[in-house]
Design a protein that fits this description.
The protein has about 150 residues and is α+β, with helices and mostly antiparallel strands. Helix content is about 40%, strand content about 20%. The protein is built from five helices and six strands, in the order αββαβαββαβα. The chain has a six-stranded antiparallel β-sheet with strand order 4-5-2-1-3-6, sandwiched between helices. β4 and β5 form a beta hairpin. α3 packs across α4. The radius of gyration is 19 Å and the shape is globular.
C-alpha cells in the first residue's frame, strides 16, 4: 500500500475525496460568471464584471467601499471567453454612461436587456442565477458584524 502511494505521488487518497460533480452543470458558484452589483441604497450606478467566484468579488469590493454593495444579478457563462466577450459587449454598449472603472450609470434591468441582446446576437445560452435573499442576507449580516467588530 505504501509503495502504491509512493508510485502515484498522491498520498493517502480516500473514498469520496476530490471535486464533487456540479449541480445542474454548474458548480456552487464556482466557474465563469458575469455579474452586476450596485449600492444597496441606489441601483442607478452599477458595476459590471466577470469572476469565477462572484460573491468573493463582492466581498473584495466591499472592503474599500464605505457604501454597502449588493449583487443584483449573476449570469453563468459556458467558458471564460464568452464571459469576457459579454463584459466587453456591455462595456461598449454603455460607454456613453461610463462613470469610473467598470461602474456605469445604468440600472440592473437595462444591463439585463443588453445581456439578452448579446445572448441572441451570438447564439449563446447564458444561465441567469437568482441571487436569493438568504444568500444576500447572510452576506449583509457578515459585513455588518465585521464592520461592528472594527475589522
Amino acid at each position: 500500500m505504501a509503495a502504491e502511494r509512493a508510485k502515484s505521488g498522491r498520498g493517502g487518497r480516500r473514498v469520496g475525496a476530490g471535486r464533487k460533480p456540479s449541480v445542474h452543470g454548474w458548480s456552487k458558484l464556482d466557474g465563469n460568471f458575469f455579474y452586476v452589483m450596485h449600492e444597496i441604497d441606489s441601483d442607478r450606478v452599477c458595476k459590471i464584471g466577470i469572476a469565477q467566484r462572484p460573491f468573493s468579488r463582492l466581498a473584495a469590493h466591499q472592503i474599500p467601499n464605505w457604501r454597502r454593495l449588493k449583487m443584483a444579478v449573476i449570469y453563468g457563462c459556458p467558458n471564460a471567453q464568452i464571459a469576457s466577450a459579454l463584459e466587453n459587449y456591455i462595456r461598449v454598449t454603455l460607454r456613453g454612461r461610463h462613470v469610473l472603472g467598470e461602474w456605469f450609470e445604468a440600472g440592473p434591468s437595462e444591463i439585463e436587456r443588453e445581456v439578452s441582446g448579446f445572448s441572441v446576437a451570438h447564439g449563446v445560452q447564458l444561465h441567469r442565477i437568482e441571487v436569493n435573499d438568504y444568500r444576500r442576507d447572510a452576506y449583509e449580516r457578515n459585513v455588518t458584524q465585521k464592520i461592528g467588530a472594527g475589522g
